[in-house]
Amino acid sequence: MAKQRVGVYPGTFDPITNGHMDIIKRSLGLVDKLVIGVATNPSKNPLFSLQERVDIVTRETARLAQASGTTIEVVQFDELLMKFAERVGADFIIRGLRAVADFEYEFQMTGMNYQINPDIETVFLMADPRYQTIASRLVKEVAMYGGNITAFVPQKVGLEVVAKVDGMAK
Question: What domains does the chain contain, in order, with CATH numbers?
Answer without folding.
Answer: 6-129 (3.40.50.620)
